[in-house]
Amino acid sequence: MYGRDCYVPFAARFAERIRSILPHILLFVEMPPLEFSIDEFPEIDDALIPRAVNATHWYDGVTLFLRAWRPYFTVDPRTKCPAFGYAAVRRTHMKQLAGIKGYGSEQMNNAPTLIGETGIPFNMHSGKAFRSGGFSAQVGALDNTISCLEASLVSFTLWCYTSDNCNGYGDQWNLEDLSLISMDKPIRSGAQLSVPERDSCGRAVHAFARPYATRIAGTPSKSEFNLDRVRYELEFFSDPAKSNEVAMHPTEIFVPQLQYPRGYTVEISDGHFSVQSHDGWDIVSYLHDPSKVNHCVGKLASFGGG
């Protein structure tokens, strides 16, 4: 099989050469897109590629290749089974991500998973948004992608920047157009009017400028943002054996003010929090009660419904 007989020996030799110069680094390991492969993900022994990270890419293939957002339809690329309805689409995407995480835990000796590349095409629906300024389809598609990643509690690198992106040629390769910013600024209409002028090159900003935890003094069990309700919630648990030590380190949540123009409320299960305001964003700093194990912080809700 290609993965076992070709890719793994190559990756091992490559890793060995890199580590001859940088011996302590983590190495991202990613197979060719599995939806195009007839082979299963190979087993990668930790002794062969030590400190490897499962960096498999993930996209909603239907949205990527059709360049259209259909929240009620997708296809599982591995099983070729269609999914109809919003809930079924979300389940399909979550199942795909669970499978990718399984590669790291089951076939890479419990290696961590970081989605090495993800995003959406901005030139969907024949570039209609470029002419109208209405990026609702792009916001919906990107929010779905990020929400699935959040709910899966998986780290990811969002395709974010191509310096010479333009509406006509996208990212300057094969008409791919995944950059979050563009030299051709979106027309300022609708939701785009609330985006500060300095950020006006951004596209679908409301989908990616969202609250998230930058530091967690424990192990997360939930970290999700509901864009429709403009509500963020973080749940995590702390190790009782290290509770006093860990409780000295704050959990920090990044909060873009774009989402909360009228301000927001914060609810916590225990402990106390403070807010540090910056130019366009806040940091909610939370110190949990060391006598508790399960913690909930966030439930950030906008004043006046957003």
Automatic annotation (TrEMBL):
InterPro entries: GH, GH5_C, Glyco_hydro_b, Glycosphingolipid_Hydrolases. GO terms for biological process: carbohydrate derivative catabolic process; lipid catabolic process. It comes from the Eukaryota. SUPFAM superfamilies: (Trans)glycosidases. Residues 210-290 form the Glycoside hydrolase family 5 C-terminal domain. One of its GO terms (molecular function) is beta-glucosidase activity. Keywords: Glycosidase, Hydrolase. Pfam families: Glyco_hydro_5_C. Belongs to the glycosyl hydrolase 5 (cellulase A) family. This is Glycoside hydrolase family 5 C-terminal domain-containing protein.
